## 1
Amino acid sequence: MKLGGAGGCALRCGLAALALWPAGCFRAPEPYAPPPQRGSPATLEIPFGSFVNMSDAGAAAYFVQDVSPQLEANAWRWTFEKPTLRFYLPDIAGLYFTMELAMPGVTLAHTGPVVLTVAINGHTFERITYSKDGQYSIRKPVPAEWLMQGSENLVEMYLDKHYVTESDKVKLGFILTRAGFVK
């Protein structure tokens, strides 16, 4: 049977509409917001820098482990077994690592002389023996090849012996006042 003229056109248009009809029954996906965009590393806000005083409001951002969250005398914090700090260094040329600490007589009375080892990004930086209580400073240049520019740098500190408190068995280390990298 051959359809021509107006009847054939109507049949063809009807068949075309019938073929497209199921497509109209499907719902388009709901619009959604794109995921949050991240800035380039140069525009990210880093919560820590190259130096910290233990009394700084944001000091906890520098603590990786074993530094007391409790600020003492508005100036210092106890360290425990293996205090570790992190620092962000935008530039690594000509930096010195500096740290102010105290060795308390109450711990030295139990441990005797202690050896403090400071490591920067896994490299042994300094090893000092303390036999007397008192305040001490370290300031020494750091080889640039040990540091990571524009990245997190870890400073680990540990004593060869700790005073263990009788009441709660906490391993006390030394008193930390400030630490970081300076020009």
## 2
Amino acid sequence: MKALTSSDFLDLWERGASLHPLDQGLLILGAGLPEASYDGLADWPLGRRNAALAQLRCACFGSRLEAWMACPECGEKLELNLDGRSLAQAPTGAQLSEPIVARGHRFRLPTSRDLARVARETDSRSAAVGLLESCQLQLGESTSWSEDDLDEVGKRMAQADPMAEILFTIHCPECGDECNTTLDIATFLWEEIAARAKRLLRDVHTLAFAYGWTEKEILALSEPRRAFYLEMVQQ
């Protein structure tokens, strides 16, 4: 996995700002794995994609993930602290050799491409059916999927690829409520990259104005050296 440079952050932010979050995630992953094709990454099972993004996140920002959310019961602000290394090293369905069998049907694991096919679907049940049918291996007559069918297939897929959806439980110390929530690692990492890119542009503006250096010259500076120049300018 290639760690991202300052120039990479700016390039990703500029190219991906108008993209759908699914495409942003693949764009980031492609920057960390430049030898991989975009189409190839789009066909990775979601767990493999998420683990790789967590690995890249650790390389660029460190292993500690911090976020905030409001308790759904009382609105208390809750802090989330996660170890990115545990996500990067978590088992995925990447090595799954046999199809998933449920309700007499055979399925493969969902990918970013499958999510993209149902991304515009506003009805959650229709989206679930669309995703299931996108992953169905055998072709045949259309099937009327019951809620039990959807639950069973979803359960089997989650067991086969536990990193496809990053779930965790949070306890609120204020009201005692426990809630389940998810971490979208692609969106989380994109927001960090966008924040880093904007900070870099502010640094470039400040140092270019003070010293007349070009963007390329400023980005070529190491982080400690750039920070020291900024400190001197701001004194």
## 3
Amino acid sequence: MPEKSLDSVFVRNAAHQLADACHQAAYQAGWWHDLNTGEDQTFDYLVDVLQAKMKPGRNIPEMLMLVVSEVAEAMEGCRKGLMDDKLPHRTMLEVELADAVIRIMDLAGGAGLDVPGAIAEKLDYNAKRADHKPENRRAEGGKAF
């Protein structure tokens, strides 16, 4: 595992708190229980799915596409310059991005994925990437849109 900076420890802890809050909200609302049986559908992705020890209760591809739909809604709100209909003091872009993060963190919490740790490690990794430096992004073939 890469060396952890003080900032990455802070990010990891903050992201874990966010993941816990998002997952607990969804869990308490019943999203992680079978609608017909009430059976708990949380699982450990690394054990239950990758090692094929048992079938997970939630449909991960469906959950990932729900994240995509939130991002698509953010794009539409951005394109049209819309305010959100449920939180009218916020832009649709802000709210739909928040929905995407909530869905990602809920999935992380319910599937036992260390997305917070991956975020902290990826931020550390990206800080050292040559292709993320402005001079390299400006260069021919650099990361630019």
## 4
Amino acid sequence: MKQHGNISFEERRKAATEAKQKLLKKFEAAPKPDDPEVVAKRAERQALAEAREARRAERKRQKQEEAERLKAEAAAREAAEAKAKADAIAEAEAIANAEAEAREAGKKKLIERVIADEAERKAERDRRYAARKARQK
């Protein structure tokens, strides 16, 4: 607070002393650490801090459970994908084997037909040769 005008040294000293007295009274009027009201407020703050810590721990536990659940789902999904891949590979191999067997069977039939045709031509040639020999005799 500024005071305007001519203020003497005594007045300034008196004002300073009064200000100190007011501060001292204010400090003395403040509740002491063992005051029941202060103790109750401290206990309330402690309870709030403990509740806050409990909520924080619960959130952390829930996050950890969620992470474990997601990890388990990912592992299950990966296993299912691996099984599906293995099944697809096995099916593709079975199809490829069936196709290879069909090609082999086709080749064998072609070879048998070629051999049969060759045998038939040889038999026809032999028959013509025998007929020609028979005519010559």
